[in-house]
TrEMBL record:
InterPro entries: DUF805. GO terms for cellular component: plasma membrane. This is DUF805 domain-containing protein. Pfam families: DUF805. The keyword Translocase does not apply. Keywords: Membrane, Transmembrane, Transmembrane helix. The keyword rRNA processing does not apply. PANTHER family: INNER MEMBRANE PROTEIN YHAH-RELATED (PTHR34980:SF2), INNER MEMBRANE PROTEIN-RELATED-RELATED (PTHR34980). It comes from Myroides pelagicus. The chain crosses the membrane at residues 24-45, 51-67, 79-98.
Amino acid sequence: MEWYLKVIKEHYADFNGRARRQEYWMFVLFNTLIGIAIGVVEYIIGTNFIGTVYSLAVLVPSIAVAVRRLHDIGKSGWMYLLVLLPIIGWIILIVWFATEGNAGANEYGADPKNPHDEINEIGQNQF
């Protein structure tokens, strides 16, 4: 749940930087569980207003965490447009989202797995 809240609170519309696999997949998991719970409640009360509002509320952070996940593997965020290509695009994105991120810093920022990379690199260059 902390990963879901981190994306919602700290990185709501943050398209810069990198997101670890764990951050992305935990967000997807909790987003799905919340969506299912909302669907059950809507079925019971006979409306779809809650789901529509929730979907609109998490649209931006969902895209943002996906873009940051692509950045973690060295891909441009524009590659997320593959979602518009049915089946093949979705499969490619799922594979990329499951791929381990680049070790160390890349053009999109420091490695989120090891935030002290810059310090380690400075120490390595000394010897």
